[in-house]
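FORM 7B: Structural annotation worksheet

SECTION A. Query
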Amino acid sequence: MIEVIPNWHPLFVHFPIALVSLSAAFHVTAILLRKRTRFASHLNVLAHSTLWLAALAALPTALMGWLAFNSVDHDEAGHAAMILHRSWALASLLALLLLASWDVWRNKVDATPAWPVACAVILAWALVASTAWHGAELVYRHGLGVISLPAHTVSEVHEHEHEPMHETLPHSH
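SECTION B. Predicted structure
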């Protein structure tokens, strides 16, 4: 397998986030514009298909997350944060798979969504958003899965000053 430093999870993670976000927006828009037949059928297809694609994209994302979970160096605080992220991720994956499976079974691709389904998709989005938040915490708060800058001596440190922002902007008269 081609090695991606440090793991493959970041390559996959943004797809379910983007797709479930779009699905929630398309569900609400499809319901609001259901009487505008020119747009309604397209919005219905987009609402359903982005939900289904979000669930499908969540599968390799979870697999790559599992591999990262078992291979990324971490300390005790990082491990606790990883467990929390994993819990949210599994809940998100389950919600997306159940919701998309039900939607495939219950609806045709051009069926107009109903408000209860739109609300369920919004809740799935909230789960995914929370999972993403906890994943970002792993990277940006705990520094997991990143390669740190090399240690420098004081004489090697890159030092410079930035001009104040107002001095770099053109003046208007």
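SECTION C. Observations
The helical segments are 9-12, 14-32, 37-69, 76-106, 115-140, 165-168. The mean pLDDT is 86.

SECTION D. Sign-off
Analyst initials: ____
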